[in-house]
């Protein structure tokens, strides 16, 4: 956090001189990202919303999600072109945004599409877990348990494995099948 704050101070000094902003557009991106990392999301979005780069779209989407505006985040994530190096992350974050917006059916569709497009992704356990949580929220407990079991099988030592085990038990309790 301290390094990010130092970066903010140094970038603010450069941003005072509009020459740097015009000739080095990545300075604005770096400044917006640094502001986001130190928790100044509102100021971060002032810079990121105006930039036209894939990295800025990711940070702006995360900022809008953090600020409780997941639908705005989705609009930024849709700007990331196919075959972009950030397409995988953008696709995963789209599912996250739908989940945060309590549109669980859309979250399931987005995460399922993510899993089809990026079957070897490091985000795979997280996507499957969020599918399970979405199914749980929709009271589709049998389907949720299947998703949580998939997480346990694919990544038994992943951070989502213990959560999946817990949510499997919760789904039994919600369905009154704990006897």
Task: Write a concise keyword list for the protein shown above.
179 residues; mainly alpha; 75% helix; elongated
Describe the model.
By secondary structure, this protein is an all-alpha fold. It has 11 helices and no strands. Helix 9 packs parallel to helix 11. The N and C termini lie far apart (48 Å).
- Biggest sheet features: none
Overall average pLDDT: 85
Work out the radius of gyration. Answer: 19 Å
Q: Portion of residues in helices?
A: over 70%
Q: What distance lies between the first and last C-alpha atoms, to the nearest angstrom?
A: 48 Å
How would you classify the helix and strand content by structural class? mainly alpha
List the total number of helices.
Answer: 11
Task: Give the SSE layout.
Elements: H1 2-16, H2 18-23, H3 25-37, H4 41-48, H5 54-66, H6 70-77, H7 87-100, H8 104-117, H9 124-137, H10 141-154, H11 159-174
Helix pairs in contact: 1-3, 3-4, 3-5, 4-5, 5-6, 5-7, 6-7, 7-8, 8-9, 9-10, 9-11, 10-11
Summarize the structure.
Helices cover 75% and strands 0% of the residues. It is built from 11 helices and no strands.
